[in-house]
Amino acid sequence: MDNFHEETKYVLQNNDQAAAAKLAKEHLENLDKVPLTIAVTGETGSGKSTFVNALRGLKNSDEGAAPTGAVETTMEPTEYLHPDYPNVKIWDLPGMGTIKFTADKYLKKMEFEKFDFFIIVSADRFSENDAKLAREIQNLEKKFYFVRSKIDHNIIDEKRDKKEFNEEETLKRIRDDCIQGLEQLEIKSPKVFLVSGKDLNLFDADDLWKLLEQELPEHKREVLLLALPNISLDVINRKKQALKDKIQLYALASAIGAAVLIPGISIAVDLAIITKFVTECQKSLGLRAESLKRLSEATGVSMEELKAEIKSPLTGVKITTELVIGVLRGCIFVGGLMAAEEGARFVPFIGTPVAMGLSAFSTYLALKYLLKSLGDDAQRVFAKAMGLTDAVSD
User: Given this structure, which CATH class describes domain 36-227?
Assistant: First the structure.
């Protein structure tokens, strides 16, 4: 990332717009390929497979979901691709204490070196096996996090059994108990998060993602954020900002077409780039048709009610260049700039640099406009599904 910024700064200082545009295009292509490999492990019945499915935005009953059950269903390390981000791989690892994988063979069998970080899941207090696993991960200088799953079940039980119930105090007591138990097993400053695998929008899940964003390398941080299911309005806002930060790259890359003195090529390149960005926004913000359907099924809010919150014609449909053109026709400022760009390219001597600048600027304005409309849709839809108010913010 730092090398890219330095190279871009250098070529721009030398007024080499074509080189800067080429660098931006290559950098975007590289970002699409950044791998993120997550390991989820825990003892039998801990809820790790449910957690794996939740990370992928799936329910246990969905096609392609990791199998779940009361007995150990993961007997071999199993890779699951994210349905929208194939570069994100989530591994469901068998528990360290299973019969097939004894402790002395576990680490070698699981190939720990290939994972970016580990999530150790338990439905109850963490065990000696969990602590031993954490120490081995630490020896490899990898990050690990403890997730206490099925917290929703604990809350239901506490409400039923106690006359005076305080959810915040109950959560603190469970968290402190987990931390103390791990410290007794010689884990220093354990990071424990209380999570419901079936409802990632509840409890400590958002705190876990924020910490991961802080501790992962920058290029992997963005991959995790954009692939994460929408679990809160804050996550949606962070996604919007990450996508907004990429707009300059897309805009700069669009200047490549303006350097080609063939009528229509520049606008065709611009539209292809805009379509790609809109598709990425739709995918990350949970606005594809299948994503909306999963949200409806998970929350019980009908598709009709969710669709009533949608204002952008780019939400919940397949993105095509023709559709993007139709939406941009309503943006006079973008259309005017594109027309000016096409004309400027054929002015002798100064035409190409001016056209490249206009191409980048018109694409930049178009992307900002489209991201704003899609981001607002994502907030409204999520708020409706979760029964929230005042969802849309800049």
Answer: alpha beta
